[in-house]
């Protein structure tokens, strides 16, 4: 079986995390491959906690309910892939792409 990519979309609290956990368990049982789970929401929460200038801007826009700029979301997602993606692994993305 080839490695697969899955993308989950939905509002906060819609059950994406639950579905991801179920999918990871099924995939591991089927082919034994590890899964790389990416969550732009988790990455934004880490960024906000960092306390730098960019985090202040992001926190302000999140508080106002504004979607983050595409370039920033793409950068966060790309950084995950650069640092954590390996050959022959399933990829599960939560919240990317979102425009």
TrEMBL record:
GO terms for cellular component: cytoplasm. Gene3D superfamilies: P-loop containing nucleotide triphosphate hydrolases. It is found in: Cytoplasm. Its EC number is 2.7.4.3. InterPro entries: Adenylat/UMP-CMP_kin, P-loop_NTPase. Pfam families: ADK. Keywords: ATP-binding, Kinase, Nucleotide biosynthesis, Nucleotide-binding, Transferase. Its main location: cytoplasm. It catalyses: AMP + ATP = 2 ADP. GO terms for molecular function: AMP kinase activity; ATP binding. It is an enzyme of class 2 (transferase). Monomer. Belongs to the adenylate kinase family. This is Adenylate kinase. The lineage of its organism: Bacteria, Candidatus Nomuraibacteriota.
């Amino acid at each position: 079986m080839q490695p697969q990519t899955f993308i989950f979309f939905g509002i906060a609290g819609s059950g994406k995390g639950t579905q991801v956990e179920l999918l990871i368990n099924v995939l591991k049982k089927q082919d034994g491959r590890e899964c790389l789970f990416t969550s732009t929401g988790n990455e934004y929460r880490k960024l906000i906690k960092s306390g730098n200038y960019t985090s202040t801007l992001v926190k302000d826009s999140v508080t106002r309910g504004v979607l983050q700029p595409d370039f920033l979301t793409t950068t966060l997602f790309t950084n995950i892939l650069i640092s954590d993606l390996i050959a022959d692994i399933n990829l599960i993305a939560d919240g990317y792409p979102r425009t």
